[in-house]
Amino acid sequence: MIRVTVWNEFHHELTQENVKAIYPDGIHACIAEFLQEEDDITVQTATFSMPEHGLTEEVLSHTDVLVFWNHMLQEEFSDAVAERVQRHVLAGMGLVVLHSGHYSKIMRKLLGTSMTLRWRHGDRERLFCTCPTHPIAQGIPAWVDIPEEEMYGEYFDIPKPDDVVFTGWFAGGEVFRSGCTFTRGLGKIFYFQPGHEEYPIYHMPVIQQIIKNGVRWCVPMVRRPEPLDNAWVNPSTEEAYLESHQK
Ligand code: ZN
Question: Which of 226, 223, 216, 227 is nearest to 243 (CA)?
Fold first, then answer.
């Protein structure tokens, strides 16, 4: 089983009626629900207001893939927790970062660039698949129309991605690297742009399929045992390989 933790800031859904109408139990509950439909995925959720944001050492060490959505409370997010997540990703934990999570402390720490972009409220997006051979693109059409989305545009200040699986075009003329993969340490990272909280984007089946594919792609191939300190384990050794497959 793939053990997924879906993390959401859970702020807009409590403070904005229009967002609450779309996600009455929070974005995390919506994402957890469609992931839970899969036979090979088991899901737990965590939110900002929980102690240590719900991302304790215990939770992370039992998480294969963390799915992460945040927006307003980027700076209030604990440095210690962001560093803990970073450490787990470097050790192999998968990370799917959605929408405004591009600017999370976790992503800035892992990728090292400013993570800034252009943005504008309310536009139509056509999301093109620009790497059809990628596992995350399997079963996804050549393009997906999103009737309403926040515009995210280039230049997106990220390091060069391993793959650009999706490229978004907006009716205003902008383009954006909307689905990017990165590898940091032993961890696989999938950043996926769609998902502004004011539009029902995570209710779209094709978007749900992309997130499911992203989760499966991010599953650790090998995971460095805890604690990490100086105990570097060569992932090519049989011992580490077996350890990673003992779930
Ligand atoms: Zn947004």
Answer: 223
Ligand 1 centre to CA of 149 (Å) is 8
50 to each of 47, 55, 82, 105, 139, how far by Cα in Å? 6, 9, 15, 18, 36
217 alpha carbon to ligand 1 midpoint, in Å? 25
Q: State in Å: Cα 194 to ligand 1 middle.
A: 9
> What's the gap in Å between 227 CA and the centre of ligand 1?
36
For the chain, the straight-line distance linking the first and the last C-alpha, in angstroms and rounded, comes to 8
Three-state DSSP at 168 gives: strand
Give the SS3 label for residue 50: coil
- 72 Cβ neighbours under 8 A, 6+ residues apart: 9, 11, 12
pTM flag (> 0.90): yes
Ligand 1 centroid from CA 218, angstroms: 24
How far does the centroid of ligand 1 lie from the alpha carbon of residue 70, in Å? 9
Q: Kindly report, residue by residue over 183-222, the tens digit of the pLDDT.
A: 999 999 999 999 999 999 999 999 999 999 999 999 999 8
CA angle, 116 then 63 then 66, to 5° = 20
What's the token pair of residue 204?
């779209």
Using the mean position of ligand 1's atoms as its centre, give its distance from the Cα of residue 246 in Å: 39
Q: How confident is the model at residue 239 (pLDDT cuts 50, 70, 90)?
A: low
Q: Angle of helix 205-218 relative to helix 27-36, nearest 10 degrees? A: 70
- Domains, the chain: 2-113+180-244 (3.40.50.880)
Q: How much is the CA Rg of the chain, to the nearest whole Å?
A: 17
